[in-house]
From TrEMBL:
<comment type="similarity">
    <text>Belongs to the fatty acid desaturase type 1 family.</text>
</comment>
<dbReference type="Pfam" id="PF00173">
    <property type="entry name" value="Cyt-b5"/>
</dbReference>
<dbReference type="GO" id="GO:0062076">
    <property type="term" value="F:acyl-CoA (8-3)-desaturase activity"/>
</dbReference>
<protein>
    <recommendedName>
        <fullName>acyl-CoA (8-3)-desaturase</fullName>
        <ecNumber>1.14.19.44</ecNumber>
    </recommendedName>
</protein>
<feature type="transmembrane region" description="Helical">
    <location>
        <begin position="372"/>
        <end position="388"/>
    </location>
</feature>
<feature type="region of interest" description="Disordered">
    <location>
        <begin position="1"/>
        <end position="20"/>
    </location>
</feature>
<keyword id="KW-0276">Fatty acid metabolism</keyword>
<dbReference type="Pfam" id="PF00487">
    <property type="entry name" value="FA_desaturase"/>
</dbReference>
<dbReference type="GO" id="GO:0006636">
    <property type="term" value="P:unsaturated fatty acid biosynthetic process"/>
</dbReference>
<keyword id="KW-0472">Membrane</keyword>
<dbReference type="GO" id="GO:0016020">
    <property type="term" value="C:membrane"/>
</dbReference>
<keyword id="KW-0443">Lipid metabolism</keyword>
<keyword id="KW-0812">Transmembrane</keyword>
<keyword id="KW-0444">Lipid biosynthesis</keyword>
<feature type="transmembrane region" description="Helical">
    <location>
        <begin position="132"/>
        <end position="152"/>
    </location>
</feature>
<feature type="transmembrane region" description="Helical">
    <location>
        <begin position="304"/>
        <end position="327"/>
    </location>
</feature>
<comment type="pathway">
    <text>Lipid metabolism; polyunsaturated fatty acid biosynthesis.</text>
</comment>
Length: 440
């Protein structure tokens, strides 16, 4: 059934022939697990079977089933012409001429302005990486790793030397975490294959994690930030309740897996200390084994082989394991506080089908001190995921101006205020849960 007054039969998936003309209402019906359509640049595609083979994972592309995915498509793919080759066989039609280019509550003016901004910064070369920046970044990580080992090798394993070693390894591990983010988003090399290869080296050999696990999990966050049931970063496995909607839902249903009205207190015990050394580690290993991702597993095991080969002669196996867990304990605190200030205190809701700018910016606060202390501006990773981070500061004033023009909230916090907001937000959500649990 076509839109715009035309009656047409949809093309067979894989035919590559656009025989259908559809309305948004018709496209939106194809949003189930076994029937998925999406729209890119007004073209309608049936991705039901392709989603399983999608390099970024089936979930991220499925999150846009029944929706316009044009902005996300541009944000995540460095070579749009190349990707079009994969889309062509999936084409089933196009939007009727009477239909707007955007769906739902998306703002056409914002989409147009953001598209112009993206074209302008691309023309200015702000999507081109500076090799020296990333070489130095990788170099200082390798240097810290080497110095940490040499220090305890030649000066002994006293408590002082061990603590200094742990501090250096924590810094190198944290910085490797940010660096793998750059390669994972294909923002360093022109060729995707080189980004993928170095990404596996950094996250696998330097950190003992999995590139595919990170890609499939993290891209979902960028595609649908802070959207319940779509962003895995706000899936707290019932340990915490977040935002204003989930606590009330849990309270009404009398769900009490934890004493949520005290979650702002036990967060300090189960959040920062355990995320990386326990939860992430278990999830990564389980993912690699259950999905039979032997390549990533080999990269990950190379880290553990290197680490224990270097440190077991100095501390023994158990001592080396304790040192590794202590480093991950410290790194986890660093990671959680930096990232969660852009998750927990921000709006966390169900899908609202918003345009890219409106969806991304209010879900991420710019923390001014991060630029100095961490070389890391969190929300520009979401707004321009493929832009090298050394160019973010050049785009900040333009994004602020655009947000001011269209009335999109743009929040700037100090580092300490961002951390305090994490705790206060957890407390507020816990109180909402308790009120609903007792009175609704």
């Amino acid at each position: 059934m076509g839109g715009g007054g035309q009656q047409t039969e949809p093309a067979e998936p894989g035919s590559g022939k656009a025989s259908g003309v559809y309305t948004w209402e018709e496209v939106q019906k194809h949003c189930s697990r076994k029937d998925q359509w999406l729209v890119v640049n007004r073209k309608v595609y049936n991705i039901t079977q392709w989603a399983k083979r999608h390099p970024g994972g089936s979930r991220i592309i499925s999150h846009y089933a029944g929706e316009d995915a044009t902005e996300a498509f541009s944000a995540f793919h460095p070579d749009l012409k190349f990707v079009q080759k994969f889309l062509k066989p999936l084409l089933v039609g196009e939007l009727a001429v009477t239909e707007p280019s955007q769906d739902g509550g998306k703002n056409a003016a914002i989409i147009k302005d953001f598209e112009s901004l993206r074209a302008q910064v691309e023309k200015e070369g702000l999507f081109k990486a500076k090799p020296l920046f990333f070489c130095l970044h990788l170099g200082h990580i390798l240097l810290l790793e080497a110095l940490a080992w040499l220090m305890v090798t030649y000066w002994g394993t006293s408590w002082t030397m061990t603590l200094l070693c742990a501090l250096m390894l924590t810094i190198s591990q944290s910085q490797a975490g940010w660096l793998q983010h750059d390669f994972g988003h294909l923002s360093v090399f022109k060729k995707s294959r080189w980004n993928h290869l170095v990404h596996k080296f950094v996250i696998g050999h330097l950190k003992g994690a999995s590139a595919n696990w990170w890609n499939h999990r993290h891209f979902q966050h960028h595609a649908k930030p802070n959207i319940m049931k779509k962003d895995p970063d706000v899936n707290m496995l019932a340990v915490f309740v977040l935002g204003k909607t989930q606590p009330v839902e849990y309270g009404i249903k009398k769900i009490k897996h934890m004493p949520y009205n005290h979650q702002h207190k036990y967060f300090f015990l189960v959040g920062p200390p355990l995320l990386i050394p326990i939860y992430f580690h278990m999830q990564i290993m389980n993912t690699m084994i259950t999905r039979r991702d032997w390549v990533d597993l080999a990269w990950s095991l190379s880290y553990y082989f290197r680490y224990f080969y270097c440190y077991s002669p100095l501390y023994g196996f158990l001592g080396s394991f304790a040192l590794m867990m202590f480093v991950r304990f410290l790194e986890s605190h660093w990671f959680v506080w930096v990232t969660q200030m852009n998750h927990i205190p921000m709006e966390i809701e169900y899908e609202k089908n918003q345009d890219w700018l409106t969806m991304q910016v209010p879900k991420n606060a710019e923390t001014s001190q991060m630029r100095i202390h961490l070389l890391f501006i969190v929300f520009f990773f979401s707004l321009f995921p493929m832009m090298p981070r050394h160019n973010y500061h050049l785009v900040v004033p333009r994004v602020r101006a655009m947000c001011e023009k269209h009335g999109v909230p743009y929040e700037i916090k100090s580092l300490w205020r961002g951390m305090a907001d994490v705790v206060s937000s957890l407390k507020t959500s816990g109180e909402l849960w308790l009120d609903a649990y007792l009175h609704k």
